[in-house]
Every structure is written in structure tokens, then in C-alpha cells.
Amino acid sequence: MITAQHLTKRYGDHAAVDDVSFTARPGRVTGFLGPNGAGKSTTMRMLCGLTAPTTGQATVVDRPLRSMANPGRTVGVLLDASAQHAGRTGREVLSLSAQLMGLPSSRVGAVLETVGLTDAESRKRTRSYSLGMRQRLGLAHALLGDPTVLVLDEPANGLDPAGIRWMRELLRGFAADGGTVLLSSHLLREMEAVCDDLVIIGGGRILAQGSASELLSGPSTRVRSVDDRALTAALTAAGHTVERTDEGTLATAASPEEVGRVALAAQVVLTELRAATSTGLEQLFFDTTAQHGREGIAA
Ligand SMILES: Nc1ncnc2c1ncn2[C@@H]1O[C@H](COP(=O)(O)OP(=O)(O)OP(=O)(O)O)[C@@H](O)[C@H]1O
């Protein structure tokens, strides 16, 4: 489990992260999304103890990471796959960390196999690695201590389609075994495919969070009637929120059956009633972050 409680990071007058609270739970993949400059990396650095919060607290498995004697045995971190020592081989990078974490050298071969780096590749200096190979090495490094928690900033960056699918299966398997995964990525389709929970951040603040199924389902019913004003009043009186969509229908989270019953009781004739399809993460992302992306910045 990872918990961010009221995390704030100020650089001078600028709040890079502003009162951010969320929980990434065991057995689930939590996606951390936001436009460029939203505060994702800064939040992840605070979770990993690399950046001290101005206020608030971050804990991993109920403790601040900095207080752990051997954090690599609990948390695997991949924050920047290109930040590897260019003159070391992949195998040397892993062997050194295995020694520092008190792990048997057999872990090195095990994680190389898990991430699909061959023996020959592992003996090359990382300066000759492609970005995809660096990501695989970074992930091997994160998995080395057999952690229960993974914090991964853009791990799929540079992977080819087969690599992305492989990463998806690896993360789903890690969560299915009870692990906690916090993952940031700009690949929205991939996030939609892999995440159980979503946290969306913009301008340093949380804009939306919840289970992916909840957030992506949106208002579940679309309805038209001969008297939308009376229907809206009746639905609102029954405790439902109602919005008008761009297509001119009314949208509500109430089920089609419930809308039908309310309309019947209010004696409003319906001209259309249907369950809405899923919103899709791309739509949710743009709807939620419209004010915060670079394209949303007024000229
Ligand atoms: N060390 C620093 N000093 C000053 N400002 C910083 C520092 N680190 C980050 N920031 C600012 O904090 C804000 C959030 O940056 P951050 O890197 O966390 O965003 P991000 O969501 O990870 O963006 P991206 O998707 O582009 O990686 C930005 O405005 C950035 O310029």
C-alpha cells in the first residue's frame, strides 16, 4: 500500500504539488495521470523519499520510505530509465545493487529472465542499450529485491507494441499476486487496459480519483422526453444528478429502469431511453484536465 496524505511541494511561490492525497492499494494497479508539468514526477519523488515534502506525508506499507533500513526489499522504483551508468553493463548494475541489498547473486539472473534481457545483452555496457532495453533493465532493477510495491514513472516509454503488452501482463501478474503498483504514463489506451484505479492530477492538484470502472462509466443513462424540465425536476427530487449532454439528451447516473419509473410517476412521456457506453479514458482525461494542459493555457 502507498499513501499520500496532503502532500504539498513548493518551489518558491509555485506549488508543484498542492495538497495531494490518495491511496494505491495492494492487488491493484493504480494509474497516475496528468498533463506535462502536472506534478506526477514530483509526487513520485516524494513517495520515494527523494524530494522532501513542504508539508504532508507519504508512506509505503505504513512507513515513510526514508525510515526503512533496506527499502529495496519492500519497494521497487523506476523513475528514470535513462539515468543509468553508461559505462557499466546491465549485469553489473544489477549485481552491485544485489550486493548492497544483501541479495543472493542468483536474483540477478532471475530478474534478467523476467524482463527478457538475454545473457549477451546483459553483458553489454548500458550506453549501447536502446530505450526499450533501458526500460527493461530499469524494471529488472525495480524487481530485484522481490518487493511488494512498485513505483514506476513512464515505464512503457520506448517499448515497442510487444514490449508494452509484455509490461501490461507483468504488472497485472504482480498485482494479481497481491502487489501494489503505482504507474504513471501518457499512454492513455495502455493505462485504460492495465489500471484498476486512477488518480488524475493537474496544476499540482487532484482532479479526479476512483476505480477505473466508476470513473470511466460516467453518467450511465441518456434520456429524452417531451418535457425535459419536468423530468429533470422529478429526477432531482428523487435524488439523482442530471446534466444536459452536447447531443441534447439528459444524462444521469440513475439506471434506465429507475429513470423510466420516475418518468412514469411524474407522467412525463419519454422519447428516448438508453444505457450510455463507457466514456473512455481519453475523453475523461481531456474533460478533467482541460484547464490544466499546456493547450489549456490561455495565450
Ligand atoms: N526542482 C524543481 N525546481 C523548480 N520547479 C520544479 C522542480 N521540479 C519540478 N518543478 C516544477 O513543478 C511542476 C511539476 O513538475 P513535474 O515534473 O512533477 O510534472 P510532471 O507531471 O511529472 O510532468 P511531465 O509529464 O512533463 O513529466 C512543473 O511546473 C515543474 O516545472
Automatic annotation (TrEMBL):
<dbReference type="GO" id="GO:0005524">
    <property type="term" value="F:ATP binding"/>
</dbReference>
<keyword id="KW-0547">Nucleotide-binding</keyword>
<dbReference type="GO" id="GO:0016887">
    <property type="term" value="F:ATP hydrolysis activity"/>
</dbReference>
<comment type="similarity">
    <text>Belongs to the ABC transporter superfamily.</text>
</comment>
<keyword id="KW-0813">Transport</keyword>
<dbReference type="InterPro" id="IPR003439">
    <property type="entry name" value="ABC_transporter-like_ATP-bd"/>
</dbReference>
<dbReference type="InterPro" id="IPR003593">
    <property type="entry name" value="AAA+_ATPase"/>
</dbReference>
<feature type="domain" description="ABC transporter">
    <location>
        <begin position="2"/>
        <end position="228"/>
    </location>
</feature>
<protein>
    <submittedName>
        <fullName>ATP-binding cassette domain-containing protein</fullName>
    </submittedName>
</protein>
<keyword id="KW-0067">ATP-binding</keyword>
<dbReference type="InterPro" id="IPR027417">
    <property type="entry name" value="P-loop_NTPase"/>
</dbReference>
<dbReference type="Pfam" id="PF00005">
    <property type="entry name" value="ABC_tran"/>
</dbReference>
